[in-house]
Amino acid sequence: MIIAAMDHFGISTLCGLTSAQGKDLLPRIAAYLDAPLVMDCTDLNLNEHTAKKSQFSGKTIATIKVEGRHYIYGIRPNAIEAKPAPCETKVIPFKTNVESEALVVKEIKKQAIKGIDLTEADIIISGGRGMEKPANFDILFECAELIGAAVGASRAAVDAGWVPHTMQVGQTGKTVSPKVYMACGISGSVQHFAGMKTAGMIIAINKD
C-alpha cells in the first residue's frame, strides 16, 4: 500500500523510524523499489540526498550520499529535533486494491511493554552488572515511574537473565537518543556507548 501511494502521488523520498517496525518495513520497500536505503540516520539533507549516521560503534560520523529514483531513510528516534515549518498541510485520502488472497492475517500478538518505550523516552534509567541481582531493577522501575522515564539495561544484565532483551541498549540492542540518560552500575563499554552516545546528558552512577 505504501509503494502504491508513492507511485500514485509521485513521491520519491520516504522517511521512517529505525524502530523494530521500521527495520522490518523499510528494507522491504527499498528492495521492491531497488532504491538506496540508509538506516539509523542522525541528520538528513533531502536536497543533496545525504544522510549522517554513526559508524564503528559510534567512533566516527559518516556522511552518506545516495543516488537513484527513490530514496529511503530510517531516522534514529529522537535524533532530529522537530521544528515548525511555514507551510500548510492537508490529508488526502488514498485507497488501493489489495487482494484478500494475497494477504491473510492469521494472528496478531502484542508483547506487553512495561512503562514507556525506550526509543521514545526523554529520560532513560539503565542498569548493568553493578545492579548485582534482578530484584534490584525494581528500584529503577520505581524511580522511572516517579520521573516519567523508561528503563533500559546493558547486555551484561540481559545475558544474565535479569531483564528481557527488549530492554537492552547498545550496539546489539536498541539505539536511543533521550534528553537524559542515567547509567546505573554500567561499565560503559564501547558497544553500550554506541547505543546511547547521542543523549543530551549522560549521568553515570557507580560506587567504584
Automatic annotation (TrEMBL):
MF GO annotations: electron transfer activity; flavin adenine dinucleotide binding
PANTHER family per UniProt: ELECTRON TRANSFER FLAVOPROTEIN ALPHA, ELECTRON TRANSFER FLAVOPROTEIN SUBUNIT ALPHA, MITOCHONDRIAL
Taxonomic lineage: unclassified sequences, metagenomes, ecological metagenomes
Source organism: marine sediment metagenome
Coiled coil (UniProt feature): none
Domain Electron transfer flavoprotein alpha subunit C-terminal: 117-197
Family note: Belongs to the ETF alpha-subunit/FixB family.
Single biological process term from Gene Ontology: fatty acid beta-oxidation using acyl-CoA dehydrogenase
Pfam family, one: ETF
Designated name of the protein: Electron transfer flavoprotein alpha/beta-subunit N-terminal domain-containing protein
Domain Electron transfer flavoprotein alpha/beta-subunit N-terminal, residue spans: 14-85
